[in-house]
Amino acid sequence: MAINSKKLDEILDLYPSKVKRNRKNHIVVRDTTTVQEIEANTRTVPGIITNRGCAFAGCKGVVLGPLKDMIHIVHGPIGCGYYAWATRRNKAQSDDPKNNYISYCFSTDMQESDIVFGGEKKLAKVIDEVVEIFHPKAITISATCPVGLIGDDLNAVAKAAEAKHLIKILSFNCEGYKGVSQSAGHHIANNGLVEHVIGSGDMEEASGKYPINLLGEYNIGGDGWEIARVLKDIGYDIISVMTGDGSYEELKNAHVSDLNLVQCHRSINYIAEMLETKYGTPWLKVNFIGVQSTIESLRNMALYFGDQDLINKTEEVIAREIAVVESVIDQYRMICQGKTAFCFVGGSRGHHYQGLFAELGIETILAGYEFAHRDDYEGRDVLPHIKTDADSKNIPDLKVTQDEQRFRLKLSPERAEELKEKIPLSQYKGLIQDMKDGTIMVDDLNHFETEEFIKILKPDIFASGVKDKYVIQKMGIPSKQLHSYDYSGPYAGFRGAMKFAEDVANSFISPTWNFITPPWKNEPLLEGKIEEGK
Amino acid sequence: MKKDKTGYRNVSENPCNMCMPLGGILALKGIEGSMVLLHGSQGCATYMRRTISEHYNEPIDVASTSLNEKGTVFGGEDNFKKGLDNIRLVYQPEIIGVLTTCLAETIGEDIERMAKEYIKDREIEGFPIISAPTPGYAGTQAEGYFSTLRKIIMGLAKETKKNKKINVIVPHISTADLREIKRILASMDIEAILLPDYSDTLDAPYTKTYERIVSGGTKVQDIASMSGSQATIEMAEAIDDVISPGAFLKQEYGVPLYRIPLPVGLKNTDIFINTLKQITGSVIPLDLSAERGRLLDGMIDSHKHNFQGIAAIFGEPEHVLSAVTLCMENGIFPQVIATGSKTHRLEDLLYESLAESEQDYHIMNDTDFSHIREKCKNSGVNIAIGHSEGKYLTEKEGIPLVRYGFPIHDRIGGQRLLSVGYTGSLSFLDRITNTLLDHKYINYRSTMLQKYYDTRS
Ligand code: SF4
Ligand code: SF4
User: Fold this and answer.
1) How many alpha carbons fall within 13 Å on the CB side of residue B235?
2) Would you tell me which of A177, A406, A432, B53 could form a disulfide with B41, CB atoms 3.0–4.6 Å apart?
3) CB-based contact A114:B18 (threshold 8 Å)
4) Over the stretch A469-495, which tens digit does the pLDDT of each residue have?
5) Cα gap B97→B221, rounded to integer Å
6) How far apart are CA A73 and CA A424, in angstroms?
7) Nearest to residue A269, comparing CAs of A296, A245, A242, A288?
8) Of the partner residues A46, A107, A149, the one whose CB lies closest to the CB of residue B106
9) According to the model, what pLDDT value does residue B444 have?
10) What ipTM was estimated for this complex?
11) Closest-CA distance of chain B to residue A451, Å
12) Active site residues of A
């Protein structure tokens, strides 16, 4: 049964009227005949169980954490550090295992006395200790809530330690109360990396042909490795990945690339934009989730470079991969065909996975993001129309200017315009373009709404995270975790698509479900009709 | 013997513990019809929900007042009230527990006052709102758990008629352990109030209809009557009196307190059963005696394997104490004993039993895994017993891990491992013995080769 606005009102009527008004703006029933708006990146309603995290999670957990050759110190009480410890499944390998700190958690473990008297001294000692024990090349310090409140000056401690140890030490004021979600933390991390890391290397030119950076790919379950496999086969020189399996050493020279690929727009678009201003490197929105999206992304990249050899090689690799993938997907499609999905993930996957679901014959009937902004829903054209509120003003934009020496226009303005007609160059059209009539877009979906939407729309599978996984499964529906992949993956690229197809199909045919009938399976569909007649 | 404490370092490298409010959430999840509101910024709530979910494989609904920058300046009372309003309307709980995070504590929020005013303001006299300050920087989840339990009793207990019931207060144990304790109590015909009881709420059976607040848990009116019980048994030896729920009931209502170890191992289970017998005069049923005999029989059967074990044991204090006892009863030497909590009780309690030991051992409190690993290195430790974070010892030092305690997020079923009582102890012991055997057989060939043939090196 589809949802109409009356039905939607019925759900929302359970809220206090103020909450109802608020939430209504975050939910859109898609009507492709009109231009629709959604409210996003605004404060969460207190007491409504959200899936959102904090700025610290976005900064340390998402963006910085995967950088394997840096030691990431959490300055704060133990909890925040513990909970952000190796929980995102971003994999990392290193030629120099001694310099890979991905499995570690470092915290200043602030105590009551530190809260009262300040934690700067302890932080300085912690830096001394980790330098002495591990000799890292670089260190990051991320602040958690109490730090900002007691006024510790992270930057000063970092500067002093930098002078003492002669290594790079970056500080991030990503206290959890900043902004309204993880998103604030992405921005803070993006600023710091552009200001202090990217461009600090002395490489002037890439050694290989077609040098690129891959932005917003976090190598969950090995996604980045699968993407890199294909890109390398085609002949790209991957200078850096931000930040899955990424490293400080690579990042320093990211300025030499000719193109920045943006996978997760939400978490990293700031870097993409700043690099364009600073070095003249355009960015291309890619999506390596799903076979067709991967192919399209590869073709767009080849078109950007416009080199016939590269275009030929791209087609060759695509043909080679298709030959393997197609029959496998076909086989799983027979199981999945005609089913429906909810797809609610952080800031980009709610969109990215729809194509892959479609390839399996699964229609996405509800989608949304935990912490995205309006441009991730409505496309970047909406950017000039977004009003900045008090919360977003708290995260200052970093002003970058052209780098006198290194700025190089990679494309003539005419060529750029021409390309923009064909490929999403410095452009993202958002989730809304793929939402069909009658489907639903929800921002910051909460537990209450999750249940209500399941009861009405009865999806066959719900792609989400661990916090709602067990609500979904208790309602008799398979869940697919798209944050951690349920310890599976990779799901990106060609081989990833096969793995995803296998995992999803298996979750449908597991004999376990034979013992379970969700209540509505036996219910006559009368309910809807009676409603109409009222 | 040698006792050795860890050197002091500032950095916590790979922590062994979490923070206070997480324990508070667990305590509240064991109360019937309860919802939890975390006062602070929402990140903490999200992180804790995920951590608990991964252990229990259940939805963990915890709301947050979602304070942001404005709240840190002007205080969070507005969000606090809105949060309570929304929870009451959407979830209709019978009781709400409010916990604080570091943020709320740092800006000095007085949740007790705020809760009182809220109740007056909304004219809901009698609606129970329990406020428990749990600043993350002030302790681990173990302290947060007990201090919240104490607050729950403080908030609910009333002067009542004396009755024959027994209060049984447990540390954070598995849901199977909770059920086992209830079974033992029932088998001895003892009416007890078990606090907390999350055996259903955090391990709910699949049912046709999904309930937003899962049924089960200790009833509010039962908690209210704990003040009239004939005795309290508190399975917590390492906690301070100031956070002890049992100590409160004793001070305030004169309920006699029996503080005993978690009934893991033969001796500790005997203590539990005998304490029950002593208080109530109940007879020990034949079935229970048979279980005891079976445990003893099993211990004899596996003793040859066990005496080869040298263990590193870590986790919350009560878990550590119980595992140490079980090991010592079975000839497994607990060489490294560690907790992330700050407690000197652990040392005092263990000192006696370990005093006669010939071997070196280390007791560490307020410690982390880098220190634990340090002590395990080249020390002959061949088995680790504790929560999932100990996988680090397996990865780095090749020491196999028997999962026990919280969190167990890298295996299925950690929330329902049975380890208490005679039956539970035997299954816990079997898990340990079999891990020793597994490890031995995996390494058997290479060890033999090295020992007898590889004389070149
Ligand atoms: S240590 Fe404090 S701030 Fe960190 S998660 Fe725990 S309560 Fe929150
Ligand atoms: S204290 Fe702040 S930084 Fe730490 S988890 Fe909570 S919201 Fe995030």
Assistant:
1) 30
2) A177
3) no
4) 999 999 999 999 998 888 899 999 999
5) 16
6) 37
7) A242
8) A149
9) 66
10) 0.94
11) 9
12) 54, 57, 88, 186
